[in-house]
Amino acid sequence: MDDETWETIGRLVKRLDEHGTASPETARLLRILKIGEEAGEVAEAVHGVMGSNPRKGHSHTWDDVQKELCDVVLTAMVALRTITPDAQRVFRENLERVAARDAPR
């Protein structure tokens, strides 16, 4: 992720902090829990693509799944930035760790 992306995430966190009514500790927990909610929306969209709910049929598209996956990523980035001001470094280091683990040996 580039600097501009993380600056945008920082602005989103600031706006949420300014307009939120929860305590900082509660806001932190709620933002982490929000990731699960968004993941559930991905699952719902996949079920909709597959038509696995007979009552709803084919209610979603793969574009819907893509949008919901982006919501998960953005929500996780907001949660990470909420718990550390150095979210960009933390993310980069973890990405490098995972990439190194999966590199050809």
TrEMBL record:
CDD domains linked to this entry: NTP-PPase_Af0060_like
Coiled-coil region(s): none
Matching entries from InterPro entries are given as:
AF0060_NTP-PPase_MazG-like, MazG-like_dom
Q: Which domain of life is it from?
A: Bacteria
Gene3D superfamilies this protein is in?
MazG-like
- Enumerate the spans annotated as NTP pyrophosphohydrolase MazG-like domain: 34-102
Q: What protein name applies here?
A: MazG-like family protein
Organism phylogeny: Bacteria, Bacillati, Actinomycetota, Actinomycetes, Kitasatosporales
